[in-house]
Model the fold of this input.
Amino acid sequence: MKLAAPAPKATTRSALLRAGGSLLSGAGIPNAENEAIWILEFALGTSRLALRLEANRTVAASEQDRVMKLFARRAAREPLQYLLGSQEFCGLDFLVDRSVLIPRPETELLVEQVIQHNLRTRPLIIADIGTGSGCIAVALARALPTAVFYATDRSLAALRIAEHNATRHGVKDRVRFLVGDLLEPLRAHRLEGKVAAVVSNPPYIADRELLELQPEVRMFEPRVALAGGGDGLEFHRRLLSDAGEFLAPGGLLVFEVGQGQAGPLSEIAVAQGGYAQAGLVRDAAGLDRVVCFERKNSAKF
Ligand SMILES: C[S@@+](CC[C@H](N)C(=O)[O-])C[C@H]1O[C@@H](n2cnc3c(N)ncnc32)[C@H](O)[C@@H]1O
Done:
């Protein structure tokens, strides 16, 4: 005869917090205590203050189970953002799951760079290539209320998340999400020569660096969002060669790059011809992070 599993012992919020904190610190999570609090706040739908004020409150068995599963996932190095389903970007809250890259603060520099260029074309059309969670297109759409966006990704699961985020932030009517390879989906919309800016944070981790990524990234973020080929610049190269056809004369091509990639990318752009360098932005760590090119008026693609 099969015996039923024993009911978990009644436990308090503070005991659960201690159990989570030690599980996470044992797994090498640097900010273990705070992360345990954030997981508990999320799972119990409560606040840090309430956790402190009602530390001795008993947690129901079903809730205990849910919290312990979340602690276990985090101890296995799944990023906290996937557990909580949320990441802030440009002051907006984005839904994230394992089908999308977690938006990074450096990428906000790309958004700022596009805004600073004060694009005046009418209609103002911007293409976001490899949109993932939609963070770039959605943040730009909020900042540029007259612009319309075409956001592509080869992952349908990512586009579903991006669409949810566009709806959440009230810009769904101005962002078209298209599945396909890089700029290819723009063809069906006859956008050749009409796009004011092509922006992209493409996958840019060089093959040899993939294995050195921290476990959270290497094991849980989508490989299709990371792997950028031998030198990490495979997608930048393809975009430099294909974007000219879609950009209006004087249009911008704005890229995020990884450490040490800005120089080689500029050399590729010079060799390609048709572009002039139009900006370089360093991140908080002093690394060249955003590179901007302008399509020359006379360029033929
Ligand atoms: C580094 S992530 C960037 C996601 C988002 N734009 C951001 O900044 O957080 C790159 C994205 O490019 C997408 N991608 C990879 N290869 C692609 C391709 N050939 N065509 C279109 N999108 C692609 C991935 O699915 C992923 O969502």
About this structure: Residues 259 and 287 are 6 Å apart (CA to CA).
